[in-house]
DNA sequence: GGGAATATTCTAGAACC
DNA sequence: GGTTCTAGAATATTCCC
C-alpha cells in the first residue's frame, strides 16, 4: 500500500511520470542519481502537468504541498554564486523519495498542524501551566519504579486472594435445616457490599492465574427453631 | 519624494510601466479603474519585467515584497465560482496604490519586522525548553498508563481481599472438641502455602485502608472421636 | 450528514545576503 | 532592506464513519 498521497489523485501517477520521463521538464536528478527531482520549466509544468493530478495549476501550491510533506528545495551553487541559473530549474528532495525505491514512499507523511489558538493569546498563562505541569511530572518518581512496586503489590494481593479462596473453599459449609430441609445446600452469606466488578484487564506476561471471583455468601433465610447440622469439608 | 520603494530600483519605473501600459500583461485594473493592477502572464512577467527592476525573476519573490508592503491579492469571483480563470491573471491592490495618485505612494510603507526584545527571546527559549521537556515526559505516557491499570488492579484486588476477609470473619467458626475441649477457639486451617509477605510499600494518595493481614487457618490437631459443635456468627 | 483530515490559497516568518 | 525557502492561517474540499 503506497501512502504517498501528497495530493496525488492517483497515488502513483506522478511517480510514474517521473520514472517514465514523460516530460522533459520533470525529471529525476542526474547529479545524485534519483535522489531528487527537477522541474525545469515552472510555467509549462504548472500549466501542463499539475492540472492532471491536482485541482490547480499553480507552482506555489505544489511547492506548499511539497513542504508540507517534508520535501526540501535543493539549493545548488548557482543560486548563491555568480552564475545566473539561466535554466528555469527547481529541485526538490526528500529522504524517502528515491528513484527505484517505491517502497519508501510510505514514510513520507504530512506534517501535522499544531493547533495553538489559546496558546498564542494567553502565552503567559500557558507558560505558567507548563511550568506547573513540568514540576508535577518532575516530582513524580521514576515511573518504572512505581510500576515495579505496583506490580509486586498486584502479585502479592493475588496470592492473598488465592489463599483466602482456598480457605473459603475448605470452610465450605453445608447447613441442613430442620424445617423444609434442603439438605446439604451451601451456606450463603453476604456482607451487604456490592459485588466488585472484575476490572482486571491488565495483560502482563506474568505467570499468574486469573483472579477467581470472590466467594459471595448470601444471607440465610430466617427459619424458626432450626438446629443447624453442619458438615465441614476439610 | 516618492517613498514607494517596494524594491523598485528606480523609484518610479514600475509605476511608469503601469501607467504607460508598456506591457499588455501588466496593467491597471479596468474594473474598479486604477484601484488595483493585474499581472496577466506570470511567466512572461517574471522573466521579462521583474529582472529589469529587481535582482530576481521569481513571481514568488515579487509577491513576497508586495505583501511586505501591504498589498493584498484581489480574489475575484472566478476563483471561488465555477468559471475557470483560464487567463493567467493575478491582481493586487493597496489602499494607497491608485492610478493617477502618485502622491499617495509615500504612504506605502514596508512592514516593520517585529523586533523581539531580549526578554521575549528568553521567554521563547524557555518555552521551547519546556515544550521539549514536556514532550519527553509525555513519551513516558505508556508507563503512566500501565501504572494506572496496575493501580486499578491493586484497588480491585484490595477490595476483593477485604470482602473475603469479611466473609471469613462472618464464617468465623468455633469448633469445640469433646476431647480436651477448648471451647470456642477459632478454627485454624492451613492450605500449606507459605504466608505471603506484606510488600505493600507503595504510597499513593488513594483513600484505601491498609490491607489486613490474611486470615490464616492452622491445621486442626488430630483428635480421636470428636464431635464438632459448631457455632456460626452471622 | 457531520466532523476530521487534507488541499488550496494567501500571507508571514526566518535565514541569509 | 531584499531574496529565498518554509510555515502559518484561512478557507475549500474530501474522506470516512
Task: Characterise this structure.
The structure is a homodimer of 234-residue chains. With 234 residues, the first copy, chain A, is an alpha+beta fold. Among the domains of chain A are: 13-107, Arc Repressor Mutant, subunit A; 171-193 and 208-234, no CATH class. Helix content of chain A is 35%, strand content 9%. Chain A is built from seven helices and seven strands, in the order H-E-E-H-H-E-H-E-H-H-H-E-E-E. Chain A has helices spanning 13-19, 42-53, 59-68, 77-80, 117-121, 123-139, 143-170; strands spanning 26-28, 37-39, 72-73, 90-93, 173-176, 185-186, 229-232. A four-stranded antiparallel beta sheet of chain A has the order 1-2-4-3, with helices on one face. Chain A is elongated. The two termini of chain A are 64 Å apart. At the A-B interface, helix 6 and helix 7 of A face helix 5 and helix 6 of B. Chain A binds a DNA duplex (17 and 17 nucleotides) through residues 5, 7, 54-56, 58, 60-61, 63-65, 67-68, 72-73, 75, 79-80, 110-111, 113-114.
Describe the protein's topology.
Two copies of one chain form a homodimer.
Chain A: H1 13-19, E1 26-28, E2 37-39, H2 42-53, H3 59-68, E3 72-73, H4 77-80, E4 90-93, H5 117-121, H6 123-139, H7 143-170, E5 173-176, E6 185-186, E7 229-232
Antiparallel strand pairs in A: 1-2, 2-4, 3-4, 5-6, 5-7
The structure holds a DNA duplex (17 and 17 nucleotides).
Précis, in short:
Two copies of one chain form a homodimer. Chain A contains seven helices and seven strands.
Amino acid at each position: 500500500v503506497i501512502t504517498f498521497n501528497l495530493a496525488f489523485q492517483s497515488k502513483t501517477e506522478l511517480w510514474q511520470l517521473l520514472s517514465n520521463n514523460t516530460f522533459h521538464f520533470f525529471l529525476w536528478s542526474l547529479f545524485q542519481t534519483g535522489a531528487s527531482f527537477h522541474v525545469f520549466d515552472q510555467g509549462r509544468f504548472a500549466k501542463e502537468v499539475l492540472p492532471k493530478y491536482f485541482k490547480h495549476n499553480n507552482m506555489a501550491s505544489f511547492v506548499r504541498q511539497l513542504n508540507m510533506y517534508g520535501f526540501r528545495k535543493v539549493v545548488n551553487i548557482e543560486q548563491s554564486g555568480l552564475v545566473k541559473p539561466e535554466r528555469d530549474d527547481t529541485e526538490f528532495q526528500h529522504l524517502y523519495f528515491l528513484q527505484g525505491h517505491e517502497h519508501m514512499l510510505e514514510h513520507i507523511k504530512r506534517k501535522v498542524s499544531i493547533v495553538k489558538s489559546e496558546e498564542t493569546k494567553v502565552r503567559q498563562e500557558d507558560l505558567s501551566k507548563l511550568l506547573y505541569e513540568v514540576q508535577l511530572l518532575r516530582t513524580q518518581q521514576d515511573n518504572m519504579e512505581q510500576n515495579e512496586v505496583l506490580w509486586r503489590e498486584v502479585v502479592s494481593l493475588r496470592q492473598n486472594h488465592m489463599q483466602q479462596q482456598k480457605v473459603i473453599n475448605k470452610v465450605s459449609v453445608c447447613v441442613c435445616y430442620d424445617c423444609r430441609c434442603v439438605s446439604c445446600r451451601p451456606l450463603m452469606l453476604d456482607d451487604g457490599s456490592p459485588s466488585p466488578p472484575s476490572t482486571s484487564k491488565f495483560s502482563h506476561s506474568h505467570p499468574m492465574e486469573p483472579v477467581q471471583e470472590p466467594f459471595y455468601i448470601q444471607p440465610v433465610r430466617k427459619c424458626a427453631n432450626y438446629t443447624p447440622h453442619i458438615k465441614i469439608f476439610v
